[in-house]
Amino acid sequence: MYEAILIAGFGGQGVLSTGQLLAYAGMLEGKHVSWIPSYGPEMRGGTANCGVTISDSPISSPVVSEPTSLIVMNRPSLEKFEGSVVAGGLILVNSSLVDIKATRKDIRVYYIPANELAEELGNARVANNIILGALLELTGVVTLDAVEKSLREVLPAHRHNLISINRRALETGAALVRQSKAARAG
Fold it and tell me: Are 149 and 28 spatial neighbours (Cβ–Cβ below 8 Å)?
């Protein structure tokens, strides 16, 4: 198993913490992992992305230049990174904030209204974990349980009260793509 994931959006959308969750979950499952953050000068509102590689074997380079999966939380990220995804790869689009469609025909694309779904759950800040749940369901790169355990490492202690809503967000994203896959197959 080898998954090179690029996560991109604005600062404050949980882009970097989503990558950390994946990396911790991979470590908990005994896999080889790398996580490289990249962000602009502003922590909130500037651009941010990170590359996460999770593999059953050693990773030769931590740089994710040809992602197998791409999570885009905003339109500029889709415009910038769509072309870098490998043929046959996967793009997960936050359709709450991205008002265009991916143009490539050689990849799988799922449009997830992450912000709306997060608001329905009662916390707009869990939109990133809705998309992460979808990624877990579609790739099986790590388990949802491992990501939940990783929340204790990534979230500061005073935010551990948010672990249950983050778990619900992960489950919401996974359920959404399960329904979508069933509809595509039917």
Answer: yes
Q: Which residues, in sequence order, are CB contacts of 136 under 8 Å at separation 6+?
A: 142, 143, 144, 147, 170, 173, 174
CA distance 171 to 103: 28
Sequence-distant contacts of 56-64: CB under 8 A, at least 24 apart: 56/1, 56/2, 56/31, 56/32, 57/2, 57/32, 58/32, 59/32, 59/33, 59/34, 62/34, 62/35, 62/36, 63/36, 64/4, 64/5, 64/6, 64/36
Q: What is the pLDDT of residues 65-108, one digit of tens each?
A: 999 999 999 999 999 999 999 999 999 999 999 999 999 999 99
What token pair was written down for 23? 């990396």
Question: Quick check: helix, strand or coil at residue 81?
Answer: helix
**CA-to-CA distance for 139 and 160, rounded, in angstroms?**
27
135-169 exposure pattern, b = at least 16 Cβ within 10 A, e = fewer: bbbbbebbebebbbbbbeebbeeeeeebeebbbbb
Burial class (CB in 10 A: 0-12, 13-18, 19+), 59: middle
The residues with which 49 forms a beta bridge, in sequence order, are: 8, 38
